[in-house]
Fold each of these.
Amino acid sequence: MTLTVFADRMSQPSRAIIIFCKVNGIDFEEVRIDLAKRQQLTPQFQEITPMKKVPAIVDGRFKLFESHAILIYLACSFPGIADHWYPADLFLRAKIHSVLDWHHSNLRSGAAGYVLNSTLGPALGLPLNPEAAAKSEKLLSASLGKIESFWLKGRGRFLLGSTQPSIADLSLVCEIMQLELVDEKDRERILGPHKRVMKWVADTKNATSPHFDQVHSVLLKLKEKLQSERAVGETSQNVLPSKL
Amino acid sequence: MTLTVFADRMSQPSRAIIIFCKVNGIDFEEVRIDLAKRQQLTPQFQEITPMKKVPAIVDGRFKLFESHAILIYLACSFPGIADHWYPADLFLRAKIHSVLDWHHSNLRSGAAGYVLNSTLGPALGLPLNPEAAAKSEKLLSASLGKIESFWLKGRGRFLLGSTQPSIADLSLVCEIMQLELVDEKDRERILGPHKRVMKWVADTKNATSPHFDQVHSVLLKLKEKLQSERAVGETSQNVLPSKL
């Protein structure tokens, strides 16, 4: 029985699961749960997970949600997954758990909160909230600082000084990619000071090529759309005074 | 070399680690990091963890933070830990990861936010914030509802229908215990509707007796102190009108 991945590629944890499967040659069926159409709220999807969130998987009779739990499950239950994704070594594995746990209340919370409140909210039926966006940006910037100064310490190009990526690299980098949606000058302000983070994002992208870019193409299409809308908005604003 | 646990028993994840060690006969030295005195900000503690948060452990040359990562590490690295704490079975283990991941942005975020903003803030130098408390209460109540209706489904007394507790039971119940600090009527309003949750808290307490109560005694002392202060406050308020 094939693995089924319920996902929306607009969701950063969904993308991490899909890229992991593709990079590791895991055979799976992708079922799109369109968040913009609120398909995560349907009774059918609640049969898969009562939490009404993507991603979720069904593998035979086994259902699972929460992206980190899914990544670990996939790394342990499919044959031939290279050890670097989720090392068997007790100490390395513990450090990976530490990064993944830290992620929830730091980078994830900051980045998702910032993108939602500064840019993406209206597409999901929510208002923009500059105050919440500013609060999230603070957490996001502090988190990027910690990645730069602590998690990326060491000789390797990846988290924990590793020479090859783990599920933690994939999870965190997919989160950072969500910042592609925000205004160019905001992204530059937030990411610009973190050169090692930007290099690590590029390294993770390269290490999972061509799947990384393919899976992110939906996000990058929305980025273009939002850029065009902002350009039109700015032009209108520039034009307005002369019209008044 | 003995395991060192850096903790403040006022911190719910700290208590989970200490109880786990005691119940499982793990020899450890407890080093108190007094959060009320901001000892987590000292350069000495930053040598242990740059995140400035408890709990953290040092085991020989190995340092680790994030309580779930620590619980998993302890369950895997010390001999004789019963399997039910962190089952070797792939599917059970995946479900435990799912509960623990879910916890971060749900019960943990809701309960910690509610207690901090409604009650504990001033003790840590932060103002009370009724608006933030109300928002956190909503998340907390929804999380308790999900524990009641989903995570506690099944025949056993513990999460995931298990007959014996896992590290997830310990982590989540220690979080719920933090509600002991809030006003009795608020706790009743929040916990009252969730009878299965309250039974599960009692079952987890019993399964880890006498360590659970011993480790929580600091919290219960603060509870008494806060109750006395509230009683004095209410008496003053009742007396005021006749004095005016």
Amino acid sequence: MNKYWSETIKGIIPYVPGEQPRTGRLVKLNTNENPYPPSEAVLEAMKSAVTERLKLYPDPNCTLLRQAAASYYGTSPEMVFAGNGSDEILAFCYKAFFDPGDWLLIPDITYNFYEVYADLFGISYQTIPLTPEFEVSVQAFAEPCDGIILANPNAPTGKALPLIEIEALAKNHPEAVVIVDEAYVDFGGESAIPLLPFYDNLLVIRTFSKSRSLAGLRIGLAFGHPDLIEALIRVRDCVNCFTVDWIAQAGAIASLRDETTFRSNLASIVNTRSKATSLLRAAGFEVIASSTNFLMASYPGLPAKGLYEALRSRNIFVRFFPKPRIDQYLRITVGTDEDMSILLDALTDLT
Amino acid sequence: MNKYWSETIKGIIPYVPGEQPRTGRLVKLNTNENPYPPSEAVLEAMKSAVTERLKLYPDPNCTLLRQAAASYYGTSPEMVFAGNGSDEILAFCYKAFFDPGDWLLIPDITYNFYEVYADLFGISYQTIPLTPEFEVSVQAFAEPCDGIILANPNAPTGKALPLIEIEALAKNHPEAVVIVDEAYVDFGGESAIPLLPFYDNLLVIRTFSKSRSLAGLRIGLAFGHPDLIEALIRVRDCVNCFTVDWIAQAGAIASLRDETTFRSNLASIVNTRSKATSLLRAAGFEVIASSTNFLMASYPGLPAKGLYEALRSRNIFVRFFPKPRIDQYLRITVGTDEDMSILLDALTDLT
């Protein structure tokens, strides 16, 4: 700490991302990356964008990317915003829609960044407990508020909320902005994008970091009423007009055009998830049925922290959250079959 | 405007970047990009970074880039921060060092974003007039404050402040953070980086968008005491842990290693600047002596706005700022000799 730091920064607890270890041989199942690489077509599109044009600022409006996304998702470009990863867009949302004194509702167990943003920008919030089964209860989100933010499917629980319940949140809170982070929806949730024509208070956030194998490129999208998108554009133009570089715009467009690889990788992950869930259960683990590319698993009677550390010493990285209610679980990214086999062997050995 | 917008966003005037026209044939001298492309070595380094590794999150700490920058600038990696363009870093500075109620001093004529950030984050500020000769007067910045932010050389005036005066600002304000934006320093200013060991309140910001021909890639750096850098890291980790993608990290490192092309392009621009200054003066323009890659030029008796529009209709894009004191000037990026020749022919025709 330092006398030059702002009071906000002195007091805040930043988000702690999963480790990005740089050692050579490891099984990395800790940050929900895709085990399958971007396709050759996507890599080629990025290479083709490495040209002399990089001397010029990128298109600040990501025109072609927004057109491609609108076409892919059946909406219009003015309902699409592109950012340098979905985290950037989520942060922009807090400045776009909320002022100090506003009141947000956030699930008590979800992506920790939602609370960090609120702390950073001085927005008040209440955490709403998930049910004992880790479900989002729409009834529990009944109280008046200025905004609701949640992930669907939720992280790190892996549980998805039916679309009708997302719709209920938007319908019950016409004065609030309801932000649905669909980082994991491609793995088994129902997207709220089809609801957008009916709810001008609904914003859907997507990332290319999980299902599209592009965590290293940094691409996120938001979908919503043009007025909500315009607010995000205003925030961006108060921060950094050019957040998505030329190469990222090209890679994201190519990803949206490569449906075959995308679907094939998703199918592989869902298949591996199903097998790993069964095998973990057979090995004595309790595993939450997952709609995402990760599993929450606990072993009755064995502290998760110890398992996490033991795995780590074997160069197998999973995630452990020292947080009430979930500190008995390991969060395990669904990797390849081989990754999961190595993990299962180690866990069998450790339990 | 919309009922869901935050009060801040309803009231704010975002930064207006120079146009990024997409028409084919034009002379683009409006956003201070480098007329020379990144070298083959830099392009190859980026292409080599387009690999399967993009499925993984990038190194959040930009370890290799910070090492390369520390080595290049003669400092240490813990005194370096890397961001998605210098604008992102500047925005982070406002959250890192200032709270509402704090008081900033900003030159009245400078990069307009400094005021936009203050408006966005609710930081109070006073604009300090430049002298009639568009000089920053250190005496005018004497009053107590929590921060000073200025560009050196300044934009859009193109004038540089001697290092001894930057030092005086840091020395006179030991309780304030003094932020020096050196976006244009490679074209003719004196960098304050050598002062950093002596002033723990001094932060120097750099961009790869101008002198390094990488506007389309988005890379900025900050240099300062490790405590200041740590505050920027905390802000980043409250917003978006991974702001600089793999390819940008690789391109930036390669740029720092390609001194020959860098120096050669700088020399060409400085040479063209010198010739264009003489020719514009010979054509009747008043031209401020520039330490940057742009010129501020006015033609006595002819409104700059009209000239700007007339050039635009000929597909020659320069910048015009409808702002007191500078609304008689065109800001003209120094392009290639050929660009400047086309511009001069048009201006001769129009005056």
